[in-house]
Amino acid sequence: MHQINDRRRPAFFESSPGVGTTGEAAVIDGASRQEGERQMEMNRHRQTALSADMLELKQPILSDDHAQRAADLDAKIRENGITFDRETILKIGGELFQELLTVDREARAESVIGPPCDLASFASVRYWFTLSGAAANLNVPQVTTSDQFDGSDKELEIGRQIVSWADEWKFSGEPRATRLAFDHHCRFARLAFGQSLYVWIESDGRIHHKFFAGGSGEKVQYLFDTWLPALTGEFHRVLIKDSLGSLVFWVGGEDSAPPLASQLAQHWFDCRVPSLEQIALVQAVWGGFLLNLSGWRFFNHVGAVIRKVPDKFTIDRWLDELGRWFPKVKRLYRDSQKYFNGAVGHYGSCQCDLSHHREFFSQTWDDLQSRVSEIVALTVQENSPADAAPIAARFRDQLLLVGEPKPKIIERVRANLAAAFPGALFNLEILQ
Predict the structure, then answer these.
(1) Average pLDDT over the chain, rounded to whole?
(2) How far apart, in whole angstroms, are the C-alpha atoms of residue 311 and residue 165?
(3) CB atoms within 10 A of CB 262
(4) Count of C-beta atoms within a 10 Å radius of residue 256
(5) For residues 340 and 325, what is the distance between their CA atoms, to the nearest angstrom?
């Protein structure tokens, strides 16, 4: 971990007059109209003077054939396939199905969940919660006249939306029923993914699926949390830890490595060994900071991770500290807003289109994380089998390799990442 030379950071880093006559009114009205048109023209000019296409961000230094080489590697991974044992999948699936039945019985014993409720469908669960009145009580305050006056009503409306399982934590009226419904969802999703694995196995006993060549998201977690024992043979993993933090720091110009979640948790909770729950909360806050989330969008993000209402006072204090410790990250997002200006209102006043701004950076980080994963995978392929194990699967934040680990590969991966992302600091780890 590089020391940060900033004493502000914790030690572990280092009224117009009346109009008299009709003629005068006509003259003034015409002048006002001309002024309005002039302002609209100025705003249109400001709007077209800068655009997102003109925003220049750091880009990785890649070979001309990088995209083709990465595509060829993914095609080879799919062609080789990965071996799963059918019997082990059935065994794990049977155990998980029994757990699902137990949770199903407990959930249906709750008064707010009727027998016809389809617990695998969020729309059905939300309907029964609404029918019983449980959905009327949310952990997000209602919009008030004061909120409408100061403009915060739109953020609150976003916070009060209940559209998917990610919003289930907002139900406050029936905490036990809410917990059981979400527990059922998690087990069902894992079971459904296992069924997909079973169906994907082809006649040669292997899975040849695009998921194992660039997959990301919850399904990767399901695989390693639940179904990894069904793999046949010996495997190890190369983890790319917090690549988002490394990339945001690199593009923003921060001259340090991003802090580890465990270090932030030690500082904020004042403890030597943070709990898993504390680390999960810190990771959610850190991720929201890196994505420049704010207001109820930020609290939606954190709440969806920790499955409960975040302490707003504590979270706001942590965000303020992160903004002081890493000002270049805040400056990156602030200074780039002028490239996303758009005309709004009757007179075409110019302001940042925050939705477009968020979408642009979200896509930017997704693309850059994919390039990092590709470089790691290509480096492993180039050094296999002498100094690296063969690749069985490539995910956005990790590789699954066959056989015993070969530690030399980490330094070679670091060298290639340093050549593509000069000055960036990535955290890599081999996990057996």
Answers:
(1) 85
(2) 21
(3) 15
(4) 19
(5) 26
Q: How far is CA 349 from the centre of its chain?
A: 32
Residue 207's H or E segment, with its range, is: strand 206-207
DSSP strand pairing (206-207 vs 213-215): unpaired
Distance in angstroms between the alpha carbons of the first and the last residue of the chain: 23
Question: Can you tell me whether residue 354 is helix, strand or coil?
Answer: helix
d(CA 419, CA 402): 27
Residue 239 DSSP one-character state: E
pTM over 0.70: yes
Q: What is the pLDDT of residues 228-271, one digit of tens each?
A: 999 999 999 999 999 999 999 999 999 889 999 999 999 999 99
**Alpha-carbon distance 388 to 402, whole Å?**
9
Per-residue pLDDT, averaged over 304-313, amounts to: 86
Pairing of strands 398-402, 391-395: antiparallel
Backbone φ, ψ for residue 329 (5° rounding): -65, -45
| Number of helical (H) and strand (E) elements in the chain, helices listed first | 16, 9
Q: How far apart are CA 57 and CA 99, in angstroms?
A: 49
* Nearest Cα residue to 92 out of 195, 211, 201: 195
The half-sphere exposure of 282 on its side-chain side, counting CA atoms within 13 A, is 21
- Reduce the DSSP state of residue 201 to 3 states and report it: strand
Q: 377: which residues sit within 8 A by CB, 6+ positions away?
A: 70, 73, 391, 394, 399
Which of 130-139, 151-160, 324-333 shows the lowest per-residue confidence on average (mean pLDDT)?
Answer: 151-160
Give dist(CA 373, CA 379) in Å, integer: 10
Residue of 225, 234, 217 whose CA lies nearest to 370: 217
Share above pLDDT 70 across residues of the chain, in percent, rounded to a whole number: 84
At residue 170, the pLDDT reads 83
- Name the most confidently modeled range: 104-118, 217-231, 275-289: 275-289
Structure tokens at 289: 């900071």
Q: Is the peptide bond before 385 cis (omega within 30 degrees of 0)?
A: yes
Position 203 scores a pLDDT of 92
